[in-house]
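In the previous chapter we treated chains in isolation. Here, by contrast, the input contains two separate entities that must be folded as one system, with a combined length of 735 residues.
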Amino acid sequence: MGLPLGAALAACGSSGPTRPGTPSGGGGGGGATYWYLSTQPQEGVRTRTVERFNKANPNSQIAGTTFQNDAFKTKIKTAIGAGQAPTLIWGWGGGTLRSYVQAGQVDDLTSWFDENAALKDRLFPSSFGAATIDDKIYAMPCETMQPIVLYYDKRAFDKIGAQPPQTWGDIMDLVPKFNAKGIAPFALGGQSRWTNMMWLEFLFDRLGGPEVFQAVFDAEKDAWSNPVAIDALGRMQELIKADGFIKGFSSITADSNADQALLYTGKAAMMLHGGWTYGSMKQDGGDFVSGGNLGYINFPPIDGGKGDPSNTVGNPGQYMSISSKATPEQKEIAKKFFATELMGDQAVKEWVATGAVPIVKGADKEFASSDDAEFLNFVYNIAVNAKTFAQSWDQALSPTAAEVLLDNIAKLFQLSISPKEFATNMNAVIGK
Amino acid sequence: MSALATSATAPKRRGRGGSLAWMAVPALVFFTGFGLVPLLGVLVLSFTAWDGLGDIRFAGVDSWTTVLADPGLPHALWVTFLVMALSWAVQTPASILLGTFLANHHRYRAILSVVYFIPLLLSSAAIAIAYKALLDPNFGLGAGLQIPLLVQDWLGDPYLAFGVVIFVVSWQFIPFHSLIYQGGVRQIPRSMYEAAELDGAGRVRRFFSITLPQLKYTIITSSTLMVVGSLTFFDLIFVLTAGGPGDATRVLALDMYVRGWQASQMGLASVIAVILVLVGLVLALVLRRLGGRDTSHSQLEGA
């Protein structure tokens, strides 16, 4: 019953044209509502996609409203809890989606995807994992895949006359060499906490394969006490103790892109970060990217580790669900949007233009014309070849467990708790 | 509604003393609507389990036992107390001195008082963002001016981060308290100083024997504002350190937000909110007791 208000609110901040006279339903406007993030260049792609849809379907309108990243996370949760969610609920899937499902706030799309098999087949299969809760699909994977990659500055490696690391051992060997030259081995925005988490994700995977974290996800008792996990946490602290990260990394945030700035200004030699940072380094880093100074590799294997070195972690896609509180008309509009423009040909082209890889099979055809063809192909191949494309831990876990995880990761990086204490603290929230 | 009805008839029935009671109605209505009702809501929520999305489930005292058994609570209380005590200890002497200084009528002091006032005009979030940028170890003030002393892990070291919080809080609020003290000092009768001067008291003696004792109630007012206000420091700390590093600067208000919105446990967050309200009430009462006992007692003897 809160829908008319929700629609009215959305219309206030609308960026797409809303048609007040659209006849459908009774009372309030019958159009679907859609909230999305306001960061450029992604915002532009989303806005234009909605505009195209509205133009092609004069009787089915979508009104978009934009929000800043952190504001969005709280806002959408509050709106859903208050029964005033937008028709289209955008998110990162995983644990947050699960909490929506448990509260009965989003629609089951499994049968719809069965009816639209061609659409399902068009998208990367690995992107469906985070949309699937208890074998049912509750969201349409969309937009782009963002694996975490190891970036490096070629100029820094020239300075010390070394090659990019092939193994974890190489990384540990490179650390003192860079430090001796006054270059920090790795940039890190440690205050943001999830930045530290990406390291652990790779260490766990390379040492023990995806099974180690899967056990946590499946709520197995004491899963964090797995010797592989303890080993990975220990190696993490070894790298920190060896001054592997820039001095004062706990004071640096990722929101301000200061960690990326460290890399392109030559203050740090390497950085483990999401695929999305390529675009921002290109934009902010002067001629760093265009001058060919940026190198990138998948995270190297660890000697004796059991994990497949082709594996990757990150965001396998973004996810769009339909609010169960929406009217039947709104749900129809949403489904039409999913089937047509959301990941249509033009949308795919525009996502490629932002320097990211859309989650559509064969998207690599579009790369040739792009300035960023090399990076795009690199990301595409990681995604195609990965045995597993694991979702970021904080997205995969429930919000409750994720908060405890990030808190303990921060303490682990402060060296204020040991790997064993970390495991004990984390075991306490398994399955919560 | 009933409050409105009774107050409307009050003036007729009661004598002069009651005739002004209706003036409290707007404040009372607001206080009930925006103060008491939400407070009751929080109290009820503290006995439930709710993730903010689904149904609110009654959970008895589960949330209370969870929070009270969590080592995070004594830590958050301790941090809150430290912020309170240290920010009071830094702000009070500085504010009294500045307030006394600004109380004299000189043109240059009037100009200075305007300058001192500026931090109070800025929003806490803006201040926090500015300081965060200035303190960045690689791109901040220290690196820019090439002063190695300023290149520290300001927000990454637990002690330094705590110091930074106290400093920024003081920087922001000293102007406000100076203003209060300025007003307090100006109300002290000149005759007292003149008499002391005739008795041969020097500047320092006059400050300690007249100004300070005369400021007693001002000190209590300002301290109450500081102490109770420090319970609500949220925006500044949230933007500056987000409670970090680890949980070094996680005060109660922040703990409440993290549990409620980031960890989706509204029941636990409500428990902390109730504790926060209780702590605030107790503090306000204690401070009133300290000074408010005999308000009839004259401070102007000998003036």
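Chain B touches chain A at residues 51-55, 132-133, 135-139, 151-158, 241-242, 244-247, 258-259, 261-265 (CB under 8 Å). The domain at 82-242 of chain B is CATH 1.10.3720.10 (MetI-like fold). Compare these points with the single-chain example from earlier in the chapter.
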